[in-house]
Automatic annotation (TrEMBL):
Belongs to the OprB family. Residues 43-70 form a coiled coil. This is Carbohydrate-selective porin OprB. GO terms for cellular component: membrane.
Amino acid sequence: MQNTLHIYLSIGVKYRNRVSELIATATTSLVTKEDLATLQRLQEEFAAELATLRGRVDALEARTAELEANQFSTTTKLNGEAIIAAIGATGGSPDRDDPNIILTNRVRLNLNTSFTGKDLLITGLQSHNFLGGLDGSGSLQESLGLASPILSASSARTSFEPQFPGIDVKTLSDVSANEAYYRLKLSDNVSITPGAFVLFNPEGDNRNDTTTVGVLRTTFTF
């Protein structure tokens, strides 16, 4: 929008100057002085519109300069998500007579960075005040007073349950990294994605441990 207005204004100014020159010097039969006088009259009739356009361009340039001076980054965009939910459950076999209704939250911030225009680096930060996990220890379902057999319907899971369950309760609501992802587009049809993936409880025991696996993935599109 700014470039379009700038170009239009520049053309208008050049046109006005050229008309003035031709009025003063025109001697050929291609353009008569009467024609040039008509053009000058039209220019004068639209002088208010040109002045308004010039003022808008000046204001837009000032706003653009302010945004450039205060922008977050020239290569990184920031987006976020905050989920706050009151959760309760009924039915099933609660472990106590008065299951709790709890207030949970999960906040995520993502930094999306591109260095070349053909790559993407995503760095994710997360904070939450409840846990997940297969055995239910310290988790949402335990807070609700529900039984928590592994992978059963009574696990009371939510779509926003945080990954990496089994975190120490003392660290809840701390800010931690939850995602690191980089993709490089080699061509229109080929991209590569180096990264690390976390496997929760790979041995299937009660330790709730995690294993980090390095991966280099190549994607082909046709």
